Amino acid sequence: MPADGLRRAAFLDRDGVINVDHGYVCRREDFQFVPGALAACAQLHRWQFALVVVTNQSGIGRGLYGEQDYRQLADWMRAQFAAAGAPLAGVYHCPHHPQALLPAYRRACDCRKPGPGMLLAAARDLSLDLGRSVLFGDKASDIAAAAAAGIAQRVLLGTDGRALPPPEAAAQATARFASLAEAVHSRLLRAELAPDAHA
């Protein structure tokens, strides 16, 4: 850990990066890990990144599932990460949406990506150095949130690890790969994330 006590983090979007995006995933039986994602996170943990999930969850505000449903799934997900040797330092979610069905969640906020609120909250809570951190996301809104928060490495991935995202989607990204596993195991990104590691 550096002299200032701040850790570097690997921020991870959830749906489309960690798990297959089936649309408003809220049940364990619908949660399908993207191939290679857990192993990639375990490698990031070995490189001493704090693993932090940051996920928009407007399904709560839309009334499709409740906070308790979300938290139960998040607890199960945490356990899967821990069992894979990739313990999560934090899990942050935004339930809001400007057109949410439920009035309590109907607002424009700074925590919903592309706003940087979840990233900034994690930095405060977990003593993170955003300038030395990396974010992996599959949407332009993920990358925009990272840029707004001052995250140095912003990696755009293909949704569900299916294909390389198009160049036009990566305006604010520093790199793009088909999947989290491909990104973490690439020589290009490895040189940035683990400069002392041997290929």
Short characterization:
By secondary structure, the chain is α/β, with parallel strands linked by helices.
Strand fraction equals 15-25%
- Count of helices? 7
Distance between the termini: 23 Å
**Total domain count:** 1
**Secondary structure: number of strands:** 6
Structural classification:
alpha/beta
SSE order in H/E notation? EHEHHEHEHEEHH
The CATH homologous superfamily name equals HAD superfamily/HAD-like
Architecture in CATH? Answer: 3-Layer(aba) Sandwich
Question: What is the makeup of the main sheet?
Answer: 6 strands, parallel
Helix content: 25-40%
Strand order of the largest sheet: 3-2-1-4-5-6
**Given this structure, which CATH class is correct?**
Alpha Beta
**Shape estimate:** globular
Radius of gyration: 16 Å
Describe the structure.
With 199 residues, this protein is α/β, with parallel strands linked by helices. The two termini are 23 Å apart. It has a single domain (9-182), classed as HAD superfamily/HAD-like (Rossmann fold). The longest helix is centred in the middle third of the chain and has 17 residues, at 67-83. It contains seven helices and six strands, in the order E-H-E-H-H-E-H-E-H-E-E-H-H. It has a six-stranded parallel sheet, sandwiched between helices.
Fold topology:
Blueprint lengths: L8 E4 L24 H10 L3 E7 L1 H4 L5 H17 L4 E7 L22 H10 L7 E4 L2 H10 L3 E5 L17 E3 L2 H6 L1 H7 L6
Parallel strand pairs: 1-2, 1-4, 2-3, 4-5, 5-6
Salient structural properties:
199 residues, alpha/beta, Rossmann fold, 7 helices, 15% strand, globular
